[in-house]
Amino acid sequence: MTTHEKTGDGVIDVDTLRIIGDAIDGNVPGVPPERAWDDRRLHYNLVSPSNRRRLKVIVVGTGLAGAGAAAALGELGYDVESFTYHDAPRRAHSVAAQGGINAARARSVDNDSVSRFVKDTIKGGDFRGREADAFRLGQESVRVIDHMTAIGAPFAREYGGSLATRSFGGVQVSLTYYTRGQTGQQLQVAGAAALLRQVDRGTVALHTRHEMLDLVVADGRAQGVVVRDLVTGAVRAVTAHAVVLATGGYGNIFHKSTLAKSSNATAVWRAHKRGALVSNLCFVQFHPTALPLSGEWQSKTILMSESLRNDGRIWVPVVAGDPRSPGEIPEAERDYYLERRYPTYGNLTPRDVASRAARERIDAGFGVGPLANSVYLDFSDAVARLGRDVVHARYSNLFDMYQSATGDDPFETPMRIAPGAHFAMGGLWSDYDMMTSVPGLFVGGEAGWGYHGANRLGANSLLSACVDGWFTLPYSVPSYLAPLLGTPVLPLDDDAVTDALRTVEERIARLLESTGTRGPDRFHQQLGEILYRCAGVTRTPEGLSRGIEEIRALRAEFWRDVRIMGAGDQLNQELERAGRVADYLEMAELLCLDALDRDESCGAHFRADHVTDDGEARRDDDAWCLVSGWESPTTPPEDGGRFVRHDEPLTFTAVPLQTRSYT
Predict the structure, then answer these.
(1) HSE value, Cβ hemisphere, 13 Å, CA-based, for 61
(2) Are the beta carbons of 527 and 594 closer than 8 angstroms?
(3) Which positions, given as ranges, span the membrane (predicted)?
């Protein structure tokens, strides 16, 4: 095993781990960013309705992005095959989003507009996202709410019948549409129903309980996938003219995260191993209103919607280690630290800012609760001001969920919250048309890197998934397909197909043949501990260097000592988990390298060696106003292979570069 070159303080020299490759082109139209989407749609290739059934598209994932893309392409008349590892499309993780979906429809008469939405989104992402992408997101947001209402989403309404809105972190206008605290669930139910309508019509073939394990690349373009039937264990290939991945984010790499336990990054990582660049892996959002861990063996954290910060006030005792219950601490002895440090935005600061502030208070000894690992989210002022009935109407299911999880009633005692690994801003790199560096492979939703930059504003997740699925991919995918009209799909006996099948089968066999002593979840838990410690809310060069070494050692140990019970030709959840953990163990090293390489602080990537005098993140726009697109080496990094970083420069004209401030 090779060793790294280190400086005297134990920091790895990144030049021993990576090289700089050619620049990458985002393929953004050469017009002002506010006109880019209209210009691109005007110049897209078209496929006539009578020819669409001759072109086949595979869509992997049935969340809001995947269900929307499959349903829309099916409605247009294309031959679509949809895959999900869930037992029904409505179970995709989009159901977990709670607080709302943004849309710049200017209905609240509070000076909302598309331009203001774009400014807030770019500023919220700390100027590390494409400006033209943010404009498309804002422009299409105007259509999303009407569309989702039309297909059955029951948005909350004002007394007079108009749709209700509320605010979220990082904005000062009210543009978030919601269905109490279950917005994602209601949108997902509507999207899944639209997908099943196309299944009933015969335009979409739906395959549940199937997991994508490889990408078929032939003649330089994506032409299919390899999937495993999770019930029978059968492995097979499916080919098509194009592939769309909408498989969610990689937040579960931290083991304890707000994501469902089955959420994973395997589809994204296997596509990466076939040549698709991954971008900005270090940009991982820690949600400020997750529930704190209550013990070592807790399997995950629980998300409490950011919408609670509209009416809840966040505080800690003024005295570190104060043993009193919250009701015994008088107002004068409470530190409402967000309101103190960021008076303009207060408790509605962006998630990265709120999480860092909470982490700083907890680490400084002001944490509350039995493990002193949380802060208070208090609704007593809101109840006194608005009345219990109003607060109950706004947040009843969230309060019920909190009480079920903790035993405490938020009406009687403040909630306890703490930062938890949540949303991944990084993912597969894609150009303006949502196509990855592998022609024919498109990406949607959290599986991609677009829109959010270094930090996602709350309620932009559901929006980006809906915009990708319903209003972007149904334009860009047909434009790619048009020149392929008349060409057959790749035959299943092609060398590229048999190679992908062989790769998957050999990997499964290697896992099953292991004679180790520990199950895959133990390794996943160890990986999460490393990442929280070395690549968590705050990073240091020394910690990241140590993390890379520990991850390499854990990866080697995994392949020596993992134990998989059962066989491959049957339902085997341990085998599923083992494959996903193996992918995380590779991805985690690149995540830490990306964080070590990006020598600045920005958004959710907070480096302790790049801090302003008042403790805020210090960007380096001269060196790092770019997107990093990573290529993994063919030789394993532990054997001397070096990652290749490809850069896409970012420019800002409508929203000029500026210091990000919420004070």
Answers:
(1) 32
(2) no
(3) none
Query: In the sheet where 204-207 sits, what is the strand order?
Result: 204-207, 79-83, 56-60, 242-245, 441-443
pLDDT digits (tens, 9 = 90+) for 463-490: 999 999 999 999 999 999 999 999 999 9
Tokens of 500: 């992908």
pTM greater than 0.90: yes
C-beta separation of 68 from 465 below 8 A: yes
The DSSP secondary structure of 588-652, one letter per residue, reads HHHHHHHHHHS-S-BTTB-BTTSB-TTS-B---HHHH-EEEEEE--SS-GGGT--EEEEEEE---
**Amino acid code (one letter) for 585:** L
The strand ranges marked E within 61-122 are 79-83, 101-102
- Please tell me whether residue 189 adopts helix, strand or coil conformation: helix
**Exposure b/e, 234-266, CB count within 10 A at least 16 = b:** ebebbbbbbbbbbbbbbbbbbbbbbbbebbbbb
Options 52, 91, 351, 394, the catalytic residue? 351
Catalytic annotation present for 351: yes
Rounded CA gap, 553 and 526, in Å? Answer: 11
CA dihedral 419, 422, 423, 427 (to 10 degrees): 120
Per-residue pLDDT at 108: 84
- Identify how many contiguous H helices and E strands the chain contains and give both numbers: 17, 21
Give dist(CA 139, CA 115) in Å, integer. 9
